[in-house]
Amino acid sequence: MLHTIIKENAYQDSVVLMLLTNKVSTIDGVNRVSIMMGTPANKDIFGTSGLRTEELEAASANDMAIVVDTEDASKIDEILAEVDAFLASQATKESSNTTETARTWDKAMKLDSDANMALISIPGTYAAAEADRALDEGLHAFIFSDNMPIEEELRLKQKAHDKGLLVMGPDCGTGIVNGVPMAFTNVVKPGNIGIVGASGTGIQEVSTIIDRLGGGVTNAIGTGGRDLSETVGGITMLDAIAALEKQADTDVIVVISKPPAKAIRDKVLALLRTITKPAVTIFLGEKPTYHEANLYHAYTLEETARIAIALAKGEAVKAVETQIVKPEIGLTPEQKHIKGYYSGGTLASEAAMLIADALQLKEGLIKQDGYILKTEGHEVIDLGDDIYTQGKPHPMIDPEKRIAFIEDAANDPETAVILLDVVLGYGSHEDMAGQLAPAIKDVIAKAKAAGRELAVIGTVCGTLQDPQDYNEQRQTLETAGVIVKDSNNEAVRTGLALVGRTVEEADKAIREVESGEAAPILEASDAMLDLLAKQPRVINIGLKSFAEAITETGGRVVQFDWRPVAGGNPELQKVLQFLNSYRAETADVK
């Protein structure tokens, strides 16, 4: 039976509500529960999960909506007590935080008139309006929020380009600005390598390998996954490359992207061929066969990091040889399949790419229902896909969905290898290895009892400086029976070796390439160079945990205590957005 509780004017950010949902769901007698703000989009999510009720319709965007499926009505009082206790603990944390807080843009800008970036992590329906205002205030915009129409992304990026500003995102999961982490980010040592990437966990994997190999990063600029689409045209990518070219502390530039539109890829390469600094590219899914003078092309994220390290040290670039030691695991003749369950979308894509290459699969690489690859019994799933995260925590925070997939795969007598990642850093679970370990230990034991050995192979994406203990996370996985490798590339190739497959790669010679694409002429603005040269001063609009990471690493932040305006009505918000833009334009004219 469904029970609905509406807590009026009790706005909380989405991560807090997801953690609260997890906590309430553990109460005995609770079949299902969902706790979200009462926005129209969230009401649709309630409906998709079968939890939409008549009482829910009265909730506004500023009201907290709790829908519980339980046969025991007496549980409601227990649930309310748990909700109140959890929210009280959050309030205590906030009251002990010395970060200055503002409820309006005017107050936020008065608290820090030198702010130069807005970090936006509110529901995507409302993100464009706040990004617009940020640009009008002369701030760069880092948009963690997703579900923004691509037309809005294009408009914002064109506006930013005209103003000499950067829009990072939407759906930009990670970034490093002069050593200060943005959103889900690892703590990476400073160095002389600059990264720009249309890929969150791609940036994380490359930057953490660089760190562990003794190198460091000046800046890592996320662009959002659609930046290299035909529609957007690589606006942020191209501007960021131009800025890193002029940025004094950057000696090497790394470009990372999920599969781009060919025309935009060619435009990016044309620009890279004109810069003075050596560059490394990885366009995930492409298997390059050559390098160019001063421009190197990698196949895997690990190769990207290793080439960047060589260039940063002024060393010659050599072929990267991945030494694979085949584990001593005896598989039955039926065990032939590899299954990967990833919290990182780019890591999942890299795994699918390598498996498809080694098995010479003509079909199987897909992007549907979270699957990156699904063919002939093999599968790789991005558990961070929207289908798995609507109204639920991201798998970097919550292990529940991944554990269910691991258990199902382990019960299949044809499964040989299970691949997984643990991504550390700000925003991620404080002990994800500890959350996964009991289930992994259990499935390995059950397979053994059934007369099978099961290979669980993983990698930890992180650094020794991360909030979690990198070595302890590795040790926890190893104790549970996981074969832990230093990179996703090595983990996948180890799994392939167990099923008798390898990825063939030839050495890449340097050759001249005639580019048919005219290089864009770009100038890095003073505002872009200033952003990359100094620790950022941030207006944080959304998740409070992002503010904590900034202050811990020396950045300055003002917390914008955001609430949906106009009662959450999108049409009224557009009117307000127009009026604000008109006001800004009028002020510029005067």
From TrEMBL:
GO terms for cellular component: cytosol; succinate-CoA ligase complex (ADP-forming). It comes from the Bacteria. Residues 189-284 form the CoA-binding domain. One of its GO terms (molecular function) is succinate-CoA ligase (GDP-forming) activity. Residues 342-494 form the ATP-citrate synthase/succinyl-CoA ligase C-terminal domain. GO terms for biological process: tricarboxylic acid cycle. Pfam families: CoA_binding, Ligase_CoA. InterPro entries: CoA-bd (IPR003781), SUCC_ACL_C (IPR005811), Succinyl-CoA_synth-like (IPR016102). This is Membrane protein.
